[in-house]
Specification:
The chain has helices at residues 3-27, 55-59, 74-92, 98-118, 123-140, 145-170, 177-216, 230-243. It is mostly helical and 255 residues long. The structure holds zinc ion.
Length: 255
């Protein structure tokens, strides 16, 4: 592993910490990037040594030092996910796309963290996935624009159609518009041929998670149970992006 790759993984741990805090603030309808990190229970500002990813949480045994409120698992898990996504990029990013791949992973982690808390996928983050994908296409495979643009249209159009038909047939909302926007934005990355595999992974993972959740809560899964689908679309998109065969669409190499 090069020094730069190690830097990306360590940055991923910090990025995960920031994403967890930002998702919490978003869920409480506070400003995303507001001031110092505080204990979510007693509001005491945290010292730098309480903000070291994973280690601080482990050292404090998952509790605030002053009020002893449980900090919960979301912080260490999101931090580890940020590092793991960078590691996945180092291991599997298509040639010449390491930085793009890692940034994509962190954007998707932020979308997932927010969707799990609020059932919302902010337009700004979906737009960032789309814009980063467009820059990636422009710099690494400009000859393939049609395939990637078709991915955007098909990805958005497909889930938009499902959303509209479901509402018409069942008289209530099934999918959020954010899900269609996210799949469209990921279409820029995986191209038209990648949409079906993304949806397959997203559906299987989403169903598995919903079943696991209903077992844990000992409540039966109903057609009306609220399920965040965004995290699973994000997972499918990242997996299909990193698992594409080398030089499938990418012609040149640029960091
Ligand atoms: Zn506290």
């Amino acid at each position: 592993m090069t020094a730069f790759e190690l830097f990306l993984v360590l940055a991923g741990l910090l990025m995960g910490s920031g994403i967890d805090a930002a998702a919490d603030r978003f869920a409480r309808e506070e400003s995303w990037i507001a001031g110092r990190s505080r204990c979510r229970t007693c509001e005491r500002p945290l010292a730098w040594y309480e903000l070291v990813p994973v280690l601080s949480w482990a050292a404090m045994r998952g509790r605030c030092r002053s009020c002893h409120a449980a900090i919960g698992w979301s912080a260490p898990l999101t931090e580890l996910a940020g590092g793991a996504l960078a590691l996945a990029g180092v291991a599997w990013a298509p040639p010449g796309t390491l930085v793009f791949t890692v940034l994509l992973g962190w954007l998707l982690l932020a979308l997932a963290a927010i969707d799990l808390r609020t059932y919302l996928l902010p337009d700004s983050l979906n737009a960032a996935v789309l814009a980063l994908g467009a820059v990636m296409v422009a710099l690494t495979c400009p000859a393939d624009w049609p395939v990637h643009l078709a991915g955007v249209v098909i990805g958005f159009g497909l889930l938009w159609l499902v959303e509209v038909l479901y509402r018409r047939l069942r008289g209530r909302d099934g999918l959020g518009r954010g899900d269609a926007k996210l799949l469209g934005a990921l279409g820029m990355w995986v191209g038209a041929p990648g949409i079906a595999p993304v949806l397959l992974i997203a559906s299987l993972a989403g169903i598995a998670a919903a079943l696991a959740g209903s077992v844990r809560k000992a409540a039966p899964l109903r057609a009306t149970s609220a399920i965040a689908f965004g995290p699973w679309i994000a997972l499918g998109g990242f997996v299909v992006w990193v698992m594409q065969p080398d030089d499938f669409w990418l012609s040149s190499q640029i960091y």
